[in-house]
Amino acid sequence: MQAKQACDVALSWPRTTTHSGPKSPRSGPGPSSYTGGVADRRIRELERQALNEGPEAFARLVFERLRQGDLSAVSELLRGDPARAVQQLSQSLTRPELERVASLFQREASRRSVRPVGPEVIRARPHMFVGGASAHHLVLEAVHHAVEDAVSGSGERSIRVVLGADGVILVEDDGPGLPASGPGRLEDRLREFSRDSAWRPISYTGIASGELIVVNALSGWLEARVVRDGRAWSLRCEQGQPVGGLQDLGPATGHGTRLSFVPDAEIFSDATIDLMAVRRRLRELAFLGASLGVERITLRDEREAQTEETFHFPRGLLDSLDELCPPGESLLAVPFHCRGHASLVGVEVALTYRCHTREELLVGFANTLATPRGGTHQVALSAALAARLTAWMQARLPVERNAPTLGPKVRSGLVALVSVLMPEPQLEGSNERWYRLSTPGATAAVREVMEPALDAWLAAHPDQTEAILDQIEA
User: In DSSP terms, which residues pair with 261 in a beta bridge?
Assistant: First the structure.
């Protein structure tokens, strides 16, 4: 029976991980709580029903896979053209479900019709992929790759960057190491874009960053060494093309990925690495590291005077807040801080008030990219703060009296940071200096995470709450 055969294929699928948010060991659930919890149990139950109950249950299984965005696996499962596959399911799905299936299949067909971008295309148009003519972009791409794997991995990790005196750049991490075979294998990572794939469906360090194919294509040579499952492997490429194939280096201890590469002089007229640009970005990522699964980032420069600096901010945005508003200038002895997940969006907020000023400073990040023009996540922070302060005042007034509406006044003297990590953020703006987050879902996520935590903070610090209201109303 066709449905029975198709279900046998479904049962053999690997458990692909669709990132639902960043992993944060200190608080809140990470991706595994979504993909390995209720959703995964539902898939297993539907698989059992499909085997026992036939086509209708099989259709429900296919729809659930599609709803999770597992398009490639479903296309392989159905083994036919999209129109015929949708027709097969039409007897068992409701009209909204059927429309959803048709839309997803159309998107998958469009994606597959696009010619894959290989190293040769990147070399022909390098500015489209690195966003500038400076070789330091390759360093950041390699670092972003390590951060991306930290989001989807288990436990926190360290990243080390070395700018060698001989021009060789080294980026290594102590993550699980890229696999030598199977989905997401080392050679595929170096020669294919991983977006919309089984191993990397979402980018958390930008719109299209963290791709090793870009680093490989724009390097004169690149050597990758990985240690995984007790064995070491290496692969060398020159101008994006493998040389000599994957080498088995034998048994090894530890785990991780190490990339050594030299920017291609044919691509970059000046291969000098901008140390300040690299340092600024690494420091920014380290502040956001508590939500990204990155514990520390080390930068070593061996080119002239050898220097080494370690970026380690275990309190996340709270450490950044101390720099923006030192304790001596802060109205609050205990700044507000929260971190959590809502609707597949990771949220972190830190805020305080600066004494004797009405100037506000509100800094936002979306998938680690700064949003200088604000956006829905920053609007949500202000709205949540105004709503909960108003509710706190209302609870202390007689029933017949209403608390005054705070509105924009709540931002008088406010110093705050908000960071969101989410699938497919909608960023407006032509470049990083003009980014603005317009994703509507960020509003609800920020408020859902922030408001209960803010209620608890206000209740625990009534004196500081009164100080905030006094400054706002002054």
Answer: 169, 222
Q: In terms of domains, do 410 and 298 share one? A: no
The owner of tokens 């610090």 is 461
Q: Which two tokens stand for residue 348?
A: 């972190």
**Those residues with Cβ within 8 angstroms of residue 22's Cβ, 6 or more apart along the chain or in another chain:** 30, 31, 151, 204, 291, 292, 293, 346, 421
Among 82, 98, 113, identify where a domain stops: 113
pLDDT in tens, the chain (474 residues): 333 333 333 333 333 333 333 333 333 333 333 334 445 555 555 555 555 545 555 566 666 666 555 555 555 545 544 444 545 555 555 656 555 655 655 555 555 555 567 888 888 888 777 766 678 889 998 998 888 776 665 556 899 999 999 999 999 998 888 888 887 789 988 988 764 443 343 455 554 456 899 999 999 999 999 999 999 999 999 999 999 899 999 999 988 999 999 999 999 888 889 899 999 999 999 999 877 788 899 999 999 888 999 999 999 999 999 999 998 999 999 999 999 999 889 999 999 999 988 899 999 999 888 999 999 999 999 999 999 999 998 888 776 677 777 888 899 999 999 999 887 788 887 667 788 999 999 999 999 999 999 999 999 999 999 999 998 886
**173 and 283 fall within a common domain:** yes
Q: Which domain, by its residues, includes 261? A: 119-311
Residues 105 and 235 in one domain: no
- 349 with 292, same domain? no
CATH number at residue 143: 3.30.565.10
pTM exceeds 0.85 for this model: no
Q: Are residues 160 and 307 in the same domain?
A: yes
Residue 166 sits in the same domain as residue 218? yes
Beta bridge partners of residue 231, listed in sequence order:
228, 251
Cβ atoms of residues 85 and 105 within 8 Å: yes
User: 69 with 105, same domain?
Assistant: yes
> What's at 153, amino acid-wise?
G
255 and 151 in a common domain: yes
Alpha-carbon separation of residue 71 from 83, 95, 450 (angstroms): 15, 20, 34
Q: What's the CA gap between 128 and 267, in Å, rounded?
A: 13
Domain limit, last residue, from 284, 311, 338? 311
Q: Which of 380, 351, 358, 367 is nearest to 444 (CA)?
A: 380
Place of tokens 């690149």: 222
- Say if CB 153 and CB 24 are below 8 A apart: no
Distance, in Å, from the CA atom of 321 to the CA atom of 338, rounded to the nearest integer, reads 13
